[in-house]
Design brief:
Length: 421
Amino acid sequence: MKKFLSNYKSTIILLVAIIVGSIIGIIFKEKATILSPLGDLFLNLLLVIIIPLIFLNITTAISKMKQPRRLGKIIGSILLVFVLTSVVAVLIGFASTYFVKLINTEDGEQIRATLESTEDATDAESSEEDMTIADRTVKLLTVNDFSKLFSKDNIIALLVFSIIVGIAINMSGEKGEPFRKVLESANSVMENIVKIIMYYAPIGLGCYMASFIGSFGTSIAVGYLKTFLVYLIVAVLYYFVMYSVYAFIANGKKGVKAFWKHVIPATVTAMGTCSSAACIPINIESTKKMGVPDDIAETTIPLGTSFHKDGSIIGSVFKIMFLVGLFGTSLATTGDVLGVLGVALLSNLLITAVPIGGGTISEMLIITMLGYPVAALPILTIIATIIDMPATVLNVVGDDVSSMMVTRIVDGKKAFKSEER
């Protein structure tokens, strides 16, 4: 119990703060808005760190990437499996939320107006409606002035620039090492800045919830509860059904039997630690017992921990659909639906290797790419908190079954002849 409380201490504190804030909002109603400045303080702190966080994390992550030593066939198979299973995850996440309104509020317009009013007044670009798709794409990916990179309105352009800088450092070889070390040092400092800000998170999120519910009623709190329950149901079904299907694809009935015989330790570890990285040793051991060759297990699991997260991708869909319900966004056309699916995928695939603050960056990408006000960031942070445990389980176990499918692709029908090691 002590170990469990230690691992989940920060999450438990956040949940308690959110619950307490919700209760205060329900009891005091409009009077709870007096706490709004304390919530705004947390939001402002997040917005201040988001730009250096993206640049330093993405740049250092790319600059440290070296040429994989494994066979190209293994790496190619891993990427194929990761992409296909990620697409399946986002489709299931969307299907499970499209017909279930995560939040049903009559105050959508009022909430939208309130959130947007917290943003800085920016120049209205009336000509944007006349822009072509190509022009919009250029504007999304680039800016015409270096100083504009450091604006929360140009997150995607900053992401692209960070990737380019990381690649350039790699290309520079030894000459680029001093610069890389400076960035790594700055990234280490940023990690501690994030920790300092997160010490304030319980107060900030608690006050944010109190003010939000006080202003707009209990529909927001009910929406969070519904989101958690629906996500939990989807996660449980995904865990038992989809992973059984994947194991069957890998090695038929024997694969399903081997998977469920050896996956429990990884599941329990994920629930107990709420950390994908902490599960790497037990995951490698479990997949080897499932009959996965050593080289594939030792390559797929570490890569999966960084680049393959079924639970997080489904969670991104839930975050998007929560905002869709909250703001009354229309999903009437195929393009609207594809846009949601694309953003859910990109917001994870582009930042999954980010070690610090990846969740916040993903949430900012969702907000930026879909055009929601940045003041909605704490809403997504709260959703990420309440679905953390089931999402981690899917992230971890998804790597196990992915390694089985990679084995089937690489080694063929004889891949699992010795699964009982």
